[in-house]
């Protein structure tokens, strides 16, 4: 099976890991990414997306079995050609934010739609497959904390609370994380330090997970946050807001806390830090291993490829 991948971020670790796992199952890929500069302060322009249409139309003629559009804004380009089946994967912000309307319009026109959580399926209001992004259990595994702290340069003098996002990403709600840690710091004898990381090589993130005492997630919205699943794989306790599939992922994981208010998050963080032990999260992480999620995605691909026997999508002529 040969797949054309459309994406807004060709380097997204969860996507590239999934593709590598599918390649081991006999799938081959070609990838097109939307051009244009993007960072925490800059978004692509409408022109960047419009210029993407002819690139996709040209490449789609090359005999692919299906097109996999990652993120809602790539769906119109995938659907602009009418012969090849389309799988649409929604990432979270394309269901919760301003892109939601594009996702909602395009989803019924795609042959298969994949979302990361039951909450996303409910919000989208369309029949789709729930497949969280998988976690690499070999890369993310428990390691001695002392060894990890030496690798990242942290001391044992403080509690280290990991916030693995750029503070400027508004959806991640860094100000709330700062508030929660500041209050916890005033309640504990040992100092509590909020450690933010962003822009580091994904291969080093496991070191930070193993060096930390807790992961703190304070996002406004999420789909299926990879940081939570990676923390589980490293047995790192998690304190998080009730977003996306976090409550489902943390079911039965001790110690960890899901909270809605600042008070609940503070209490949960203080309890986790005072307990001073790792969680049992790795067993829960096995449900969303990269191999398990790749097998589920392969079944979606097989269903979509069989859609070719149905009548092709048609575009109504203009009048």
Report what the structure shows.
The chain has 14 helices and 11 strands. With about 325 residues, the chain is α/β, with parallel strands linked by helices. Residues about 305-319 have low confidence and may be disordered. Strand 1 (about 1-5), helix 1 and strand 2 (about 30-35) form a beta-alpha-beta unit. The radius of gyration is 21 Å and the shape is elongated. The longest helix is centred in the last third of the chain and has 17 residues, at about 290-305. A 6-stranded parallel beta sheet has the order 2-1-3-4-5-6, with helices on both faces. Strands 8-7-9-10-11 form a 5-stranded parallel beta sheet, sandwiched between helices. Helix 8 crosses helix 12 (about 260-275). The relative contact order is 0.14.
The overall pLDDT, averaged over residues, is 91
Q: What gap, in angstroms, lies between the N and C termini?
A: 38 Å
Beta strand count: 11
Oligomer description: single chain
Strand order of the largest sheet: 2-1-3-4-5-6
CA radius of gyration is: 21 Å
Biggest sheet statistics? 6 strands, parallel
Percent of residues in helices comes to 25-40%
Which stretches of 5+ consecutive residues score pLDDT under 50?
A: 307-319
Based on secondary structure, the structural category is alpha/beta
Total of helices: 14
| H-E string | EHEHEHEHHEHEHEHEHEHEHEHHH
Beta-strand share of residues = 15-25%
Gross geometry: elongated
